[in-house]
Design a protein that fits this description.
alpha+beta; 5-stranded antiparallel beta sheet; Jelly Rolls
Length: 423
């Protein structure tokens, strides 16, 4: 019987067991002397009235706005890249001396590209430097006014030798189930802004054209033109040109002698060797030529016998016209009198238009003698003469040497028209 009573008591105790949090709260109230005052039957009614009349507690809640992130785009211009395009112009010019001109030209080219983009992202940041700290909540009980006068605190509360703090009063009222009323006020804190800077780079593209003028050699003058172009990075192209003033003239006349420079070997040329045993090794090559690059015809006389005859391809001339003829002859002999005996004729059928020797020639580079002269054809409309002038040959007769061996060279044979002859 006793066992049954004990078991029943244990079961009843287990059915009303409190949670740990409730046990802590009950323990704090049970140990509070003010709670014991409020819970006393003698004072419970006045304590309840007193707690109900307390002024509501004001609680301020700070609402923090989220942090706003802004992206600021900055455009930066990099050093431009410069492409140089070289161009060459060929002009035919004659020099006019004693004139010097300096031209300075500045051109500015800038290409700038700006890309701007704004991105706004909203995120919540806690603990930002710009965020206002939440205010401290203070629970201070005040007596609430009631109709019929203010309730007095229980006598057991005022008979003590000390004054209870507002926190103790609030806790004691809560323990008897009459907590002070709470009024909540929301305070909005200012939002914080974080700015992120991004940079976009654009590269200007500048194209500078450098012109180079190539001067051609003319019979009546040579012009030299020099053009220097300097590009200054980043954005300025400075062009400095120093030139010699020139007068534009007509291009050089066409050479009427086919293969006169022997660029096609000896094609079209005719050769007569009166002593094949003593005139040997005839041919075309760059060795012994005026510049060592172009071709020249050569023949070697190894004995003091015979002569060597060279005739150009056929040349067509016109009546009542003016022409210039030029050629270059060289010899391994140091005897100028031997060179002077080279005989040159321009024959057109039975008509001899030019008949000369090299005694009027001038010596130049690599021992070459150059002869240049002008001549006119007959002023006529006679069909026979006109026909013969259409079939001309420039003929060279090289003499034997008294001191062989001697090698002869022939190069740059040219006949060009210089205009008409008025009758």
């Amino acid at each position: 019987m006793i066992n049954k009573i004990i078991i029943g008591a244990l079961g009843l105790a287990a059915s009303v067991a409190a949670t740990p949090l409730e046990l802590v709260e009950r323990s704090s109230c049970r140990d509070d002397s003010l709670y014991k005052c409020f819970a006393d039957r003698e004072y419970s009614h006045s304590a309840s009235a007193y707690c109900s009349a307390l002024t509501p507690v004001t609680r301020t809640v700070t609402v923090v706005k989220p942090t706003v992130t802004k992206t600021a785009w900055v455009t930066s211009t990099a050093n431009p890249s410069t492409d140089f395009v070289s161009s060459t112009a060929t002009v035919y010019t004659a020099t006019v001396p004693s004139l010097l001109e300096t031209i300075t030209k500045t051109e500015t080219e800038m290409a700038t590209s700006t890309a701007t983009q704004s991105v706004t992202t909203t995120v919540t940041v806690t603990g930002s430097q710009n965020q206002q700290p939440p205010p401290t909540t203070t629970l201070t009980p005040f007596k609430r006014g009631t109709q019929g006068g203010k309730p007095e605190p229980p006598k057991c509360m005022v008979t003590k030798c000390f004054v209870y703090s507002p926190e103790r009063i609030t806790a004691g009222c809560s323990c008897i189930g009459v907590p002070p009323k709470t009024v909540t006020i929301s305070q909005t804190a200012p939002c914080s802004t974080v700015t992120v800077t991004s940079t976009s780079v654009t590269t200007p593209h500048v194209t500078a054209t450098a012109w180079q003028t190539v001067a051609m050699e003319l019979t009546d003058g040579v012009s030299t033109t020099t053009a220097t172009t300097t590009a200054t990075v980043p954005t300025t192209v400075t062009t400095t040109a120093t030139t010699t003033a020139t007068v534009t003239v007509s291009p050089p006349a066409q050479n009427l002698v086919p293969n006169g420079d022997f660029s096609s070997d000896s094609t079209g040329w005719s050769f007569i060797n009166t002593s094949p045993a003593t005139w040997v090794n005839g041919g075309v090559g760059t060795s012994g030529s005026p510049d060592g690059i172009s071709n020249a015809y050569h023949i070697t006389n190894v004995a003091s016998t015979g002569q060597y005859f060279i005739a150009s391809p056929l040349i067509g001339l016109k009546a009542s016209s003016s022409y210039s003829v030029s050629f270059m002859v060289a010899s391994t002999s140091t005897d100028r009198s031997l060179v002077n005996t080279v005989h040159v004729q321009l024959n057109c059928g039975s008509i001899t238009v030019v008949d000369t020797h090299l005694n009027q020639a001038t010596q130049g580079a690599n021992g070459y003698y150059t002869l240049s002269m002008n001549f006119n054809t007959a002023i006529t409309t006679d069909p026979t003469t006109v026909s013969q002038l259409g079939r001309c040959q420039l003929q060279f007769l090289f003499p034997q040497s008294s001191q062989p061996p001697v090698t002869w060279f022939l190069a740059e044979v040219s006949i060009a028209s210089t205009g008409a002859v008025s009758g």
